[in-house]
Amino acid sequence: MKAIDIIRNEHRALAAVLRALEATIADLRDGRRPPDFRLLAAMIDYIVRVPEEVHHPKEDGVFFPHIRAACPDAVPIIDELEHQHHRGREHVLQLAMSLIHFQAVGAAAQESFCAAAERYVAFSWTHIEMEERQLLPLLSDRLAPAAWAEIDAAFAANADPWRGTADEFERLFSRITALVPAPLGLGDRRSGLASRIT
């Protein structure tokens, strides 16, 4: 069941970006630092490219159909997760559009962007928790070996969420880490440097 490890690894990578986004929004709201549009754009780029373009399509196209066939009791969970994937795309679009508006308008649009970011973060934590706590524990012995082999092969083809193809995700993740201030990242803050987001 290598796919389960890959799914959890992708969740951890997204969780690191979500924590950094939460901290960045808190800093903006409290006036601790001015908006860093390079950082915000990098975070949204990662959100689009890893969960939306790599992670969710493999779940919808390969993982969930096998679960539907083998685990009838999991069908309501799958239905909700698929619905969340659809809503997640809407959240990401709203987040990206609110960032563009924030960049164009300035401080008058900051609260609208912060609210969109907080909605996305809360939505993502709910989604990750549902997969990790409700779906994955059901599956250890429910799918046939041939089904797991197909699922494992599909997820093994995913780019590593920490590295990506030709290390593009690693470069993007490193850019986020370099821009996020301590204690979550390596960016400049009066309290000094911090460890890498993990």
TrEMBL record:
Residues 3-139 form the Hemerythrin-like domain. It comes from the Bacteria. Gene3D superfamilies: nmb1532 protein domain like. It holds the Pfam family Hemerythrin. PANTHER family: BLL2471 PROTEIN-RELATED, HEMERYTHRIN-LIKE DOMAIN-CONTAINING PROTEIN. This is Hemerythrin domain-containing protein. The lineage of its organism: Bacteria, Pseudomonadati, Pseudomonadota, Alphaproteobacteria, Rhodospirillales.
